[in-house]
Design goal:
3 helices, Fumarylacetoacetate hydrolase, domain 2, 11% helix, 6-stranded mixed β-sheet, 5-stranded mixed β-sheet, single chain, mainly beta
């Protein structure tokens, strides 16, 4: 399993990061060890600012490479809400030095997602939300993506062979911010809570 992620796929998030809206999808990968399967996310010792980014996540059922855009249900079989955890201070330093920033994005336990849900025809207008200890942090809609999921899958398959079981994180809306040890983050798909992530004190 690999975790394929997309940067800056919502214009308001690009604006809050003071970054340009991309002309084409920007991808990065997280390894399988980034999956916080248990829901427990220790704060890494190398960051003083661990940030949350809520995203729609899709499970790939039919893989391939150099795919033409297809009907979404031909490629994916489920959707959920996930969190892309980012060591923001480390990322800023690496960017300033012109260095790759996988260390700030792809570390152990940096990706969490909730229970898988069926992909319904109205998924683009279904809200996804992230709460911290019952306080709303982020809300987004698939219809507001810059690049559609179909476009993302076709573009990603030019670089990485898509395999059944891979997951696609599709970018975060505005509202990212810091999270701290002791936080409980609840992810919602529509009115359904798909799971909770628990931020723990790191070693």
């Amino acid at each position: 399993m690999k975790i394929i992620c997309v940067a800056r796929n919502y214009a308001p998030h690009a604006a809050e990061m003071k970054a340009e809206v991309p002309a084409a999808p920007i991808f990065f990968l997280k390894p399988a060890t980034a999956w916080a399967r248990s829901g427990e996310v220790p704060v890494p010792p190398f960051t003083a600012r661990l940030e949350y980014e809520a995203e729609l996540v899709f499970r790939i059922a039919q893989g391939g490479r150099n795919l033409a855009p297809r009907t979404l249900t031909e490629i994916v079989d489920a959707v959920t809400v996930g969190i892309d955890f980012t060591a923001r201070d480390l990322q800023a330093r690496l960017k300033a030095e012109g260095l790759p920033w996988e260390m700030a994005k792809a570390f152990d336990h940096s990706a969490w997602w909730g229970l898988w849900c069926p992909l319904t025809p109205d998924w683009r207008s279904t809200p996804f939300r992230l709460f911290r200890n019952k306080t709303l942090l982020q809300e987004g809609y698939g219809k507001d993506m810059i690049f559609s999921v179909e476009e993302l899958l076709a573009a990603a398959s030019r670089y990485f062979t898509l395999e059944p079981g891979d997951v696609l994180f599709t970018g975060t809306p505005a509202g990212v911010g810091p999270t701290y040890a002791g936080d409980v983050l609840q992810a919602y798909w529509g009115e359904t809570c798909v799971g909770e992530a628990y931020v723990l004190k790191g070693d």
